[in-house]
Write a structure and sequence with these properties.
By secondary structure, the protein is mainly alpha-helical. It has 13 helices and three strands; from the N terminus they run αααααααβββαααααα. Helix 6 crosses helix 10.
Length: 288
């Protein structure tokens, strides 16, 4: 039962990603030579998953991190079918920091958001960056989760992983504070009586904006900002965590702000990233 519960705890974006990866597995399975029925027999599913891992490594040339996410999706697929996850070992991964925005991309992001017309979209773009919320947490915010006074502000998060309650101060001088006040006091449509009318961020029909709709808005802003790397909303939250940890703030404090249940989740932000590796290599002397 615990395994089945774990399989159902996926957000909409993860469900879509898992479905795509499982489709690839099923297409490969249709032409694979596996003893038994991999969709009904545990021993056959073990063999199929291991062979598919080898295929992804040697033929499709996928990265280890990608292969591991595929294996996670396949395991979830089998659990939902009432079977156990295949017995297949995940690949060892080099430790790396979560992907955050580079300094150049941070500047582009903030300047693009500042020019963005819709104040709702600006709020959506700045809360993960300045408060470290997950996208699902942002869209779940209600009006009474935002506390703004003359000089201070607070974002109350009630819907994070494990339903952990936390409070995140609003940056005293950042544009987020100005846009929150503008949106709540002046620009947010009055949909009193409508479904989810208490939601902070609304769609054009007056309902709570969906995670998918929010993802599309952030993607449009990233395109306008010419963010080079493949952009996800997680990059904004990871930028929040990376900046705080690398600026020397206490790990326990950062973990509390981000809603982490374990310090090792927060400690990852101190790991080297690609830019660190490049600086190390480029620091070596050259013979000119």
């Amino acid at each position: 039962m615990a395994a089945l519960d774990k399989a159902t705890m996926l957000d909409d974006d993860t469900h879509r990603a898992y479905a795509s990866r499982v489709r690839g597995y099923l297409i490969w399975l249709d032409g694979a030579d596996i003893d038994g029925d991999p969709l009904t027999q545990a021993h056959a599913s073990d063999a199929a998953a291991r062979d598919y891992r080898t295929y992804l490594q040697t033929v499709a040339k996928r990265k280890p991190s990608t292969i591991n996410t595929v294996l996670a999706a396949i395991g979830d697929f089998y659990i939902r079918r009432g079977m156990r996850a295949p017995d297949v070992r995940r690949l060892d991964l080099p430790q790396a920091a979560p992907r955050a925005l580079s300094d150049k991309d941070v500047t582009r992001w903030l300047r693009t958001v500042e020019r963005w017309v819709h104040p709702r979209d600006r709020v959506l773009a700045l809360i993960p960056f300045y408060a470290g919320l997950r996208l699902g947490e942002v869209v779940a915010l209600n009006l009474d989760d935002i506390r703004l006074s003359a000089r201070k502000g607070l974002i109350i998060v009630r819907s994070g992983k494990g339903n952990k309650y936390r409070e995140v101060p609003v940056h005293e001088h950042a544009q987020l504070r100005t846009d929150l006040k503008l949106w709540i006091d002046d620009e947010r449509p009055d949909w009193t009586g409508a479904a989810n009318s208490e939601a902070l961020l609304l769609n054009h029909r007056g309902g709570r904006i969906s995670a998918r709709g929010a993802h599309d808005i952030l993607g449009a802003i990233a395109d306008e900002a010419r963010i080079d790397d493949e952009f996800t909303s997680h990059a904004l939250r990871h930028t929040f965590g990376t900046r705080l940890v690398r600026d020397g703030h206490d790990l326990v404090l950062v973990a509390e702000l981000m809603g982490h249940s374990r310090l090792d989740q927060t400690r990852r932000y101190s790991l080297p990233n690609q830019a660190d590796r490049e600086r190390a290599i480029n620091s070596l002397p050259v013979d000119r």
